[in-house]
Amino acid sequence: MADIVQQRLEDRIPALEQLERVGLFTSKEVKSMLKRSTALEYKLHRTVQSKDDFITYIQYEINVLELIKKRRARIGYHFKREEIEYPIIHRINHVFRRATTKWKEDVQLWLSQVAFNKKWGTKTQLSKVLSSMLAIHPDKPALWIMAAKCEMEDRNSSESARHLFLRALRFHPENKKVYQEYFRMELMHAEKLRKQQQELEQAKIDVGEYNFSPEILSGKLAEVVYRDAAQKIKGAEFILSLLQIAAIFDFTKELQDTILQELQSQYVDDCMMWDFMAKRELDAAGAPELQSAKGRASDTDRREERCCVVYEEALKSLNTEAMWTCYVTFCLERYKRKTNVSELKEKRKERLLRVLQSAHDAKLLQESFYKNWLKVLLSSGDTVSATQIAITATQCFSQSVEMWSFSLQTLVQLESTEAGHLFQEALKHVNPKVVVVPQLTLSGTQHLTADLP
């Protein structure tokens, strides 16, 4: 062990001498560094090795690198990096390699080495580390994605990134995130090539000498990824995630249209598709820019009505709780939006109440929406309807303690004569120990309506 440590220390001497010779460190500092390094080296060669000792060693060497960087900047000396920094970087990677060999399953160790090589610009070493890490941890999709991003962003190699994504899909053929990031990478690659082509054209350089494939520039590789993904992974939500990624790029109109058409034709029984199509009406082209607040409010109202037309159309063929939930959620979100135009506020309230009633009549209204319904009625001062809905809600969800408690609170607030009867009914359906009996207080009333706009 002593011979190995001695050899390691001797290997350090040329770099330490350079540090002193060029004025980055004093003789005293160099001696102190050598002493500290000796202690750290011996710890790494003990019979029983500790992961903490390896981490401490690595952190010490990184601190030395950072200090060298600061001192170079201070005295303006930027030479002899091959003789000073490179041996330290090589040594750190060697210790990382020993650590990851001994503690293969420690993902954080691998990620620390990746981060180190990214920061210090050792691109060749970075690829080796990523390759070794994936050989040990092929079961972790996030590592494949990270490795591909490193190849794309740090090494500027779209080919290597593509190769990694394809390998990742062999291990994870139905992983949504891998497909999403692969799709994004191909679009980023196309965007980068388009910018390069534009810069060459602006510089009046003949682009004929360069290989700018029209198919790649238009995003055809991304379309291939999309089609493969759409075959492997079903569901409108996933297809919509790819559509949203494509929408980030300004050259993908044709690709977006393709995805949208297939989404509409293949997922007519998926509420996520209808929800997306309905909300698209909010962004559809409308009237020219309107100056008055009432004019803008009127245009907003027309857009929201068009959204409702789509929801109503969806319910003709997809009369499900999930579809009604999308519709009610949309109306509730629009109702909660701030507006200074009272007419728009009133129309939103009427629309919300109408849809809530329709969903209730269809017996497809979720429990949580009854609370929203009651809050809207209470804020409007419609005590008769609030009383009726409070009682009706308990009939629909007779086993829900929360529903009984909320309805009782509402009736007590309204000083309704039905409160006592409702309480007796509650005791028949749920454990009396868990029913909350509300008190009629001003603060209670304020709390009930506090989250309304």
Automatic annotation (TrEMBL):
<dbReference type="GO" id="GO:0034388">
    <property type="term" value="C:Pwp2p-containing subcomplex of 90S preribosome"/>
</dbReference>
<dbReference type="GO" id="GO:0030515">
    <property type="term" value="F:snoRNA binding"/>
</dbReference>
<protein>
    <submittedName>
        <fullName>UTP6 small subunit processome component</fullName>
    </submittedName>
</protein>
<comment type="similarity">
    <text>Belongs to the UTP6 family.</text>
</comment>
<dbReference type="GO" id="GO:0000462">
    <property type="term" value="P:maturation of SSU-rRNA from tricistronic rRNA transcript (SSU-rRNA, 5.8S rRNA, LSU-rRNA)"/>
</dbReference>
<feature type="domain" description="U3 small nucleolar RNA-associated protein 6 homolog C-terminal">
    <location>
        <begin position="305"/>
        <end position="439"/>
    </location>
</feature>
<keyword id="KW-0539">Nucleus</keyword>
<dbReference type="InterPro" id="IPR003107">
    <property type="entry name" value="HAT"/>
</dbReference>
<dbReference type="Pfam" id="PF24892">
    <property type="entry name" value="UTP6_C"/>
</dbReference>
<feature type="domain" description="U3 small nucleolar RNA-associated protein 6 N-terminal">
    <location>
        <begin position="9"/>
        <end position="91"/>
    </location>
</feature>
<dbReference type="InterPro" id="IPR011990">
    <property type="entry name" value="TPR-like_helical_dom_sf"/>
</dbReference>
<dbReference type="GO" id="GO:0032040">
    <property type="term" value="C:small-subunit processome"/>
</dbReference>
<dbReference type="Pfam" id="PF08640">
    <property type="entry name" value="U3_assoc_6"/>
</dbReference>
<keyword id="KW-0677">Repeat</keyword>
<dbReference type="InterPro" id="IPR056907">
    <property type="entry name" value="UTP6_C"/>
</dbReference>
<dbReference type="InterPro" id="IPR013949">
    <property type="entry name" value="Utp6"/>
</dbReference>
<dbReference type="InterPro" id="IPR055347">
    <property type="entry name" value="UTP6_N"/>
</dbReference>
<keyword id="KW-0698">rRNA processing</keyword>
